[in-house]
Amino acid sequence: MPPCYNSGTFREGNFMLTENELKQQLQTIAANDYRVPDNVDYWSVTLDMMAHLGSIDAELRDKLIYTTFTKWAHAGLYSSDQYHTMLNILLDDQHLLCGLGERDTDTVFMRSFSALLCVWPIYHHRQQPFLARHEVHATLDKVLEYFTRENDLRGYVEVKSWAHAIAHTADLLDELAQCEEIQRAGLLRILEAIQVKASTIETIYTAEEDERLAYASLSLLGRDLLIEREIEPWIKSFAPIERVGEWRQRHLNTKNFLRSLYFQAKYRHIAEWVRAPIDETLYAITRFK
User: In terms of pTM, does the model score above 0.85?
Assistant: First the structure.
């Protein structure tokens, strides 16, 4: 049973499918090139998929639920009203905030994949706006609350596959940062939150979290709402790194993040001026003797 799911819950007048029932149904759908069978209500299946996002069954969570949702979103299956409902569900206490604050427990899968699937409603809103301005800001508030308090920083988990909460949330912040409703103050809040996670002392990232965080940061800078004299202090604030306690984790995470940001700016041709302050900051935190 997915963490945070209360067994016995009704879904639109019917009992929710069990994990095994959903898995079998999604396997059939996948074998049919993800086309919806005539006797299947795709919206009911979608609600079941969101309910089981926290499954520790890697095939169900990663390969079936996520892939099916993505295929259907690409196919334009969902309406704006349905995306609105999805977003409200994915941001609630049983999804994005499920078990928030826990470390090394299975609730991370529900949180992380809720963040990842939130990308689609936000992307759809950017193409065909359906959220009120205050809803976009409320979503950003909720996501930053989650991101700040996420303590489970694992990437790949043996047997259970990807947790990847930091990378998945970076993808969501990347999408939110491109919403026209989010202006200068909101973008600065996103950068501050990214800095904290990018320079954590809690772990050494090994699953390219630095790349995803850098990608979101650079997309944000590409909106040209923030000027150089606002961004240079943010970059330079990564240094110095005091060499006490668990400083080595911060040292390595910070260097990897700044390097990722440097080369993405170069190859994506976005805000290339950031390379100079990054160069200075990397020199300040690296010993060459």
Answer: yes
